[in-house]
Amino acid sequence: MIPKSGNRFSEKIMRKGSRDNAMAQVNATIAGRQFRLACEDGQEDHLQALAQDIDERIVELRKKFGEIGDTRLTVMAALMVSDELSEAARKIRRMEEELAALQDARVVASDRAKAASDAVVGAFNSAAERLEGITKKLNQGLGNGVAIG
Predict the structure, then answer these.
(1) Does 83 reside within a domain?
(2) pLDDT digits (tens, 9 = 90+) for 53-89
(3) Is residue 124 in some structural domain?
(4) Is the CB of residue 122 less than 8 Å from the CB of residue 136?
(5) Which of 20, 51, 79, 116 qualifies as a cystine partner to 28, CB 3.0-4.6 A?
(6) CB-CB contact of 74 with 55 (8 Å)
(7) What pLDDT sits at residue 3?
(8) At what angle do helices 70-142 and 44-65 cross, to 10 degrees?
């Protein structure tokens, strides 16, 4: 996956020899080597944490596989990060699909609730009209007697 434009770190890291004074500088140690990295102001701690994560992964891989070469260890660490990113993206897509399905179900449920509410209101109105009609008939049948209602 190629870094997307606008990434807080990748564009400046990828440009060798970039001397943009507007960017903050971070010195990070990865696999025993010092790297001077540029990032947006305020992102220094985050970049340092990312570098530390990569370094820790390389240390763990070195413990597991021994001295198989810095390049190979770095590539393996990068693949681990890429795998985690891919899995996270897959989970996000699945959750977005679930969210869309739930939103659709909510709309359907809302429409059904509205239809049920309208049906209940209609039934009450119909019952009220029938009761009024019955009351009128009873009042007419009683003639001059006591009116009901």
Answers:
(1) no
(2) 999 999 999 999 999 999 999 999 999 999 999 999 9
(3) no
(4) no
(5) 51
(6) no
(7) 46
(8) 120
